[in-house]
């Protein structure tokens, strides 16, 4: 795995990340961000306010930005008239934007009502220079993870709305990435303790 790619992944808080290469900046689910570079690609996992935050997305866009998301978020962003190219995707779909492959994967709750499977909300597998980064979105430990492959995984750890730190650790044993990074803590819910437990 490339150490350079790992060094170019920046946690923005909650489920938000900025991933940069020499040419491209990709931002996922920006929420209450203090700063982020203008993005070439923005990925939005689902329409909840802490993931599809129009105000934060507006901070990241430029004229050439491409947004990839699911239908509800696409409608929310279209209504906000941000004036960017919005591509709608569903689990199993693949988009290529600016030379980067983005695969949409399922993200849902098994024993909770917050993220129903039938909504077809998203996680993403992003392929950059042959390496796969899996952003799980808001999800529980789901059967699809048994077939997932990725070099770097970004997993929620707070419980309540998503999987717990223990469940996220089990996901790591299934996916077997080189690096696992916790998210979905220290904002609306979850604490550093959840991240340390995951570690």
Notable characteristics:
199 residues; alpha/beta; 6-stranded mixed β-sheet; 20% helix
**What class would the helix/strand composition place it in?**
alpha/beta
Computed Rg: 15 Å
N- to C-terminal distance: 19 Å
**What's the helical proportion of residues?**
10-25%
Can you tell me about this structure?
The chain is α/β, with parallel strands linked by helices and 199 residues long. Helix content is 20%, strand content 29%. It has helices at residues 3-7, 54-60, 71-79, 165-175, 192-198; strands spanning 9-13, 16-20, 25-28, 41-43, 66-69, 85-88, 94-97, 100-106, 122-128, 131-135, 152-156, 179-183. It has a six-stranded mixed beta sheet. A six-stranded mixed beta sheet has the order 7-8-9-10-11-12, covered by helices on one side. Helix 4 runs parallel beside helix 5. The radius of gyration is 15 Å and the shape is globular.
């Amino acid at each position: 795995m490339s150490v350079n790619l790992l060094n170019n992944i920046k946690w923005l808080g909650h489920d938000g990340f900025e991933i940069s290469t020499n040419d491209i900046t990709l931002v996922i689910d920006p929420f209450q961000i203090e700063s982020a570079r203008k993005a070439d690609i923005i990925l939005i996992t689902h329409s909840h306010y802490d993931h599809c935050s129009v105000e934060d997305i507006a901070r990241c866009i430029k004229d050439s930005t491409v947004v990839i998301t699911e239908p509800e978020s696409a409608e929310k962003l279209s209504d906000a008239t941000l004036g960017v190219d919005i591509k709608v995707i569903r689990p199993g779909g693949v988009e290529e934007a600016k030379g980067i492959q983005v695969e949409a994967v399922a993200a849902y709750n098994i024993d909770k009502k917050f993220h129903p499977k039938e909504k077809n909300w998203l996680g993403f597998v992003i392929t950059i220079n042959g390496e796969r980064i899996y952003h799980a979105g808001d999800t529980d430990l789901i059967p699809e993870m048994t077939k997932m492959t990725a070099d770097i995984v970004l997993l929620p750890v707070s419980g309540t709305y998503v999987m717990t730190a223990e469940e996220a650790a089990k996901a790591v044993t299934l996916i077997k990435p080189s690096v696992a990074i916790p998210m979905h803590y220290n904002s609306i819910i979850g604490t550093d303790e959840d991240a340390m437990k995951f570690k």
